[in-house]
Amino acid sequence: MNGWSPDKTWREECGVFAAYGVPRAAEIVGLGLHALQHRGQESTGIVSCDPLGEFHSHKGLGLVSDVYDEAALSRLTGTLAIGHNRYSTTGSLTLENTQPLRVVYRAGALALAHNGNLVNARELRRNLEEAGSIFQTTLDTEILLHLMALSSASSPDAALVEAARQVRGAWSLVLLAPGRVIAFRDPHGFRPLCIGRLGEGWVVASETCALDLVGAAELRAVAPGELVSFGADGMKTSRPIEAETPLRQCIFEHIYFSRPDSRVFGEGVDRVRRRIGHRLAQEQPAEADLVIAVPDSSNSIALGYSEESGLRYELGLIRNHYVGRTFIQPHQAGRDSSVRIKFNPVREVLEGQRVVVVDDSIVRGTTSKKLVRLMRRAGAKEVHFRVGSPPVTHPCFYGIDTPSRRELVGAVKSVEQIRAYLEVDSLGYLSLEGLLACEREPAHFCRACFTGSYPVAVDPTADKLAMEKLRAVTPPAAR
Ligand code: AMP
Asked: Which UniProt keywords apply (predicted)?
């Protein structure tokens, strides 16, 4: 099952959490992962380290609440632990591929949990395999462990730095070694990672909403290129890799991926989304009676649209919270059928009304098309679709799962063609300029999914999957 092929996808959307010097660390990590469930729903794992330096782990496929129970967590003894929630793509949903990855190398045990995507993974893996490395998973994360094992450095911190110097791309990771927890973020700062203080100990999380849930006080973000090491000597920080200028923080974290109650890249996500909504209302006004959101990811943007336009905000679609995000399912069939499982229109709100429906993004367009049909069936007289980001025209190679170009509706259809495809009365996207104006430091954001201008080069000749994802499409203008 795990036979590697260069076509296998390793794309990762994930959440990581770590605790150092915290009583019953695994329970805290379990709580933290619960708050990060939106970042990955297919598998989850926790590895703890007890006072003797022994590692204990528990992993499973499914949601945090399904995988851990009291008995499982109580076996994960120790005051140090790391955990991971994972989203996987077709073919790679296996227990072996569930992080944290745990290994024993010459200098002892290690466990690694990684959020991001390494763009030179295939090349590195090929070289390592040719030199005799045996891989246990299809994850790019495992490459870091092999590179660490090859390093002659004496400490896990130094071995990790040596490994990190050989990879390119996005990583926000936490590493567990006996008596030590390390947090490290790539020099571009693609994915978030923050530090909190909990009692006498520390926690590290993908998003601050996880710090809130465990009752930790937010200290700060791990800076791009910074390595933070927690051990008996306390919290030590170093900058082994110089931060890039400008940074390439993922703008999609602000648009869609992070929770609105988190502070990500130094900003409250809700605040950024409100500004997006304001700007969208200015750029794309609509003659309508009310505004609704595609819940939950678009709630803050739709509220912003309502505030700016003066159109009243209504709850016209109700989301069933007991199903996962529609997009975070590996198969197209699952995605399609789950739109109906996930959303139900409120007839009393929509009937006879001219409705502005706000979504954060359109990727394939399949969700929006089905939603529009549901709303029409519930009696909406007019549907004006407004999107809080520009058309997604290019796949992401830095940790957001996006399909290949030919599946991106924004890459193959013009806005008017998308309007017709969605069967809406009007369609309006936020401009890239408008989106960037909603950020305090617009220069420090990656926007490759809207422009195709990739800040860390992807080499399609070394990577068949990348080649497939980037395969040319007939651009809308030429149609
Ligand atoms: P689509 O049917 O592909 O156009 O799906 C668009 C919907 O998926 C939007 O409502 C977004 O909220 C959500 N979405 C956008 N990007 C992602 C992503 N990378 N992962 C999961 N969901 C996403």
From this structure: 4Fe-4S, Glutamine amidotransferase, Glycosyltransferase, Iron, Iron-sulfur, Magnesium, Metal-binding, Purine biosynthesis, Transferase
